[in-house]
Amino acid sequence: MEEAEGKSNIHVMMTMTTPACPFGPELIREVKEVLSGMEGVGKVEVQITLTPPWTPDRMTEEARDELGIF
Fold first, then answer.
1. How far apart are CA 58 and CA 46, in angstroms?
2. pLDDT tens, 22-44?
């Protein structure tokens, strides 16, 4: 995170559930929108990575239960 003009720039690295996640562009847009709206935030950069790969093991037990993943 860098500072410019008294504001902090933010770099987010996200892992999608699949390389072809259909919600990827929307998720990136929403993350940028929410973070950019916070006080003191300058530039927001979102980077997608596939390392480490996403698996259901990364979900909370509550989230797995809601989706029926045991």
1. 20
2. 999 999 999 999 999 999 999 99
Residues 32/46, Cβ–Cβ less than 8 Å = yes
Distance in Å from the first CA to the final CA of the chain = 37
In sequence order, which residues have a C-beta less than 8 Å from that of residue 28 and are 6 or more positions away?
A: 14, 46, 48
Please tell me the distance from the alpha carbon of residue 29 to that of residue 15, in angstroms, as a whole number: 15
Length of the chain: 70
The pTM (predicted TM-score) of the whole model is: 0.70
CA 40 from chain center: how many Å? 19
